[in-house]
Amino acid sequence: MPYLLRPRPNSGKFWLDVTWLIVIACFQCSILPSITGSVIYIDLLTSWLTVSVIRQDLFRGFILAAITALALETHSTLPAGIYFCIYGVIVAVVANLKDPFSWMHNMPWSVSIILANLWAVVFEVIVLAILNDGMPFFEWRIVLVYLSRLAFSIPFGLLLAQREIKALMQ
Fold it and tell me: Are 47 and 162 in contact (CB under 8 A)?
């Protein structure tokens, strides 16, 4: 019973993983914006999904990615389907590259989380630049929002990775 109260991306029970993913999505989409306003965008789902996909098989990874994308698509003003593209690529790349690496070390986790978060930011920037004809989008405020997003989401992902490494060691 106590494992139900410990949020982890990979609990060993898929229904519990989906439940915690929905809880994190609700927290990110409804509670965090009311706390931070439009100044800081904190992305917890990209790191959560990356850690989940590393420990799950491909089919479950795509299901988690679809749930994550649906949660973000409902609260986004970006073009429809952008999060399906972002998270679909993350799942496909991680699923194809996870076998050769030893996940008992920090380096593969760190690189995966950093690259997944960078991919999400870069893809959003490219899409927004195309929609806005490039120029008006690149203001300091927008750059600071994306840098703050990376500054919060990458350490969150590394914290999750440390918990998963400890679980692998047991």
Answer: no
Q: Rounded to whole angstroms, how far apart are CA atoms 29 and 34?
A: 9
State the Cα–Cα distance between residues 44 and 59, nearest whole angstrom. Answer: 22
CA distance 88 to 37: 28
Q: What is the dihedral of CA 59, 26, 17, 157, to 10 degrees?
A: 90
0.90 exceeded by pTM: no
Of 25, 58, 47, nearest to 111 (Cα)?
A: 47
Query: In angstroms, rounded to a whole number, what is the distance separating the alpha carbons of residues 137 and 143?
Result: 9
pLDDT (tens digit per residue) in 71-87: 888 877 667 788 899 99
The mean pLDDT value for 45-60 works out to 90
Domains and CATH numbers, the chain: 2-169 (1.10.1760)
Q: What is the DSSP letter of 27?
A: I
How many whole angstroms separate alpha carbon 81 and alpha carbon 135? 23
d(CA 64, CA 15): 11
